[in-house]
Amino acid sequence: MDNQRLVLVFSLAAVLFLIYESWMQDYGQAPITPQAVSQPAASAPVATKDIPAVATTLETVTSSASMQDATQIAGEPPITVETDLLKLEISPRGGTIGGAWLLNYAVTPEQPESKFQLLKPLPPNMFVSQSGLLGEDASVLPTHESLFQSVQSTYRLGANDEQLNVVLSWKNNAGVEVRKDYTFTRGSYVINVRQAVTNATDAPLVAREYNQLQRTTFTDPHESRFVKNYIGGVYYSPEEKYKKVSFDEMNKGKLNQTVTDGWIAMIQHYFMAAWIAPQSIQETFYTNVLNNSRYIIGKYSPAVSIAPGTTQVFENQLFIGPKLQDTLASIAPGLDLAVDYGRLTFIAQPIYWVLRQIHSVVGNWGWSIIFLTILIKLAFYKLSETSYKSMANMRQLTPRLQALKDRYGDDKQRLNQAMMEMYKTEKINPLGGCLPILIQIPVFIALYWVLLESVEMRQAPFMLWLNNLSAPDPYFVLPLIMGVSMYIQQKLNPAPPDPMQAKVMMSLPFVFTVFFAFFPSGLVLYWVVNNLLSIAQQWHITRNIEKEAARRKR
User: In what order do the strands lie in the sheet with 163-171?
Assistant: First the structure.
């Protein structure tokens, strides 16, 4: 029984350790080391001497920027754009999107009129989306620091409109014109970005397009300090799939990798911005760090030669919005992986699907968690039954085990031999209840990530005082119920014969109550319901075994 107790304690501790480890660090990814620049082939035949040294040009453009360019973005009168889902501020300085509010998401549930701002032009929490063009001469084509013109300063998606087009233009004295279009669609967080370069000169023009996301570190004053989520760069390629590039890794080395049919993004808890590359075009993904405080992840296209009197069009998609798994999956391959369930994604995704199906019926995420917990409990009913039967049988042996301990005292070897003989005689496996619990641990951790990572849980109300399942219970009622339920479970289990171990076991409900007081209430709700169902099942099994034992005595 001592061994069984230790296995159960260590199993429970393992769950908490894995959850805590996931808070405090990203899933292990080796630091990215600098790679040799590989130049992708141009989409049109050009002489080698006509291809600009894009790596050098891009480095010059990004490195020459300081905090001043962010001030310029904030200082220029912005072009405001409002759709049914987004409110944006586009700076004439490079057409940079320096402000983005998500109209369906409030900062706090207490102030629904104050909308969550994802993009912001100035620190703290600076986060902007930039795009531009690169050539042999920085003055020939506009970068994200060039000044564009717009015929309007305000755009709004009409009630009967399905699309909204925002046009910015730029031209130089040499005869090069650039038109930058942002096309918004009703009901979508995807922005189609189109840069059309017209060469009205008498010589070929070589150009590349680049798109990048730039941000500082992020601090959310409304986020629980005990819940640490990954904030940083990510990218996707068909070969390597989903990869993270943390801020620390950007400081250690620069990413420089050619990718076809991929995307780059900056993500944070619940939300993200991503540039999605056009299909079948090999682009180069890169990272950079400015002033040791501003982190960039971006991509640039192959070099193309634009003949005199012709126009070259570069098209991309920009996503700015919540990490809705179903929506992301329909936009680009692998984009749904930004909803990061860690190593247990293969378990978490089916759990998320079931949770979504339940919600489509009941319409409340709190009740959806309760019904999901019941379904999981039913799925593991037989395994749990094996564990509880083992515990109930061990409970019957508690007086006899105590008698053995009193008989043999400190002679551990003889005590263990006597205990094993008793287990053999009674046909009881002291570890019989451990395997079912170990099997369920991956499911518990996967469900933890589903409830923590799903943006649907953000500020989702349940009932009574629980108006935000993603925040801790403000009155600590659920953690207290959880602690009491753990205490009742302890009483249903056989008491350890070792006094020190008994004290450790009885302290666990208090420790877990304090620990869970800082968990999002949606997670605590799951544990409370699971504990209550476990108590009911364990009490029923223990009662039946005790009745059977009483009949045998008669």
Answer: 163-171, 176-185, 190-199, 311-322, 271-276, 263-267, 232-237, 241-245
Residue-wise pLDDT tens digits, 404-431? 766 776 667 777 777 777 766 666 665 5
| Helices and strands (H, E) in the chain, number of each type | 13, 19
What pTM was computed for the model? 0.80
If you classify domain 28-216+228-339 with CATH, what class do you get?
A: mainly beta
CB-based contacts of 506: which residues, under 8 Å, 6+ apart?
Answer: 487, 490
Q: In the chain, where are the structural domains located?
A: 2-17+354-553, 28-216+228-339
Task: Cis check for the bond before 123: say yes or no (omega within 30 of 0).
Answer: no
Question: In this structure, are residues 224 and 471 in contact, taking their beta carbons and an 8 Å threshold?
Answer: yes
Using alpha carbons, list the distances in angstroms from residue 527 to 14, 374, 523: 16, 11, 7
Among candidate residues 39, 199, 37, the one with its CA nearest the CA of residue 133: 199
- What six digits make up the tokens of 64? 């020459």
152-184 pLDDT, tens digit each: 999 999 999 999 999 999 999 888 999 999 999
The span from the CA of 98 to the CA of 121, in Å, is 5
CA separation (Å) from 305 to 156, 170, 202, 203? 36, 19, 13, 10
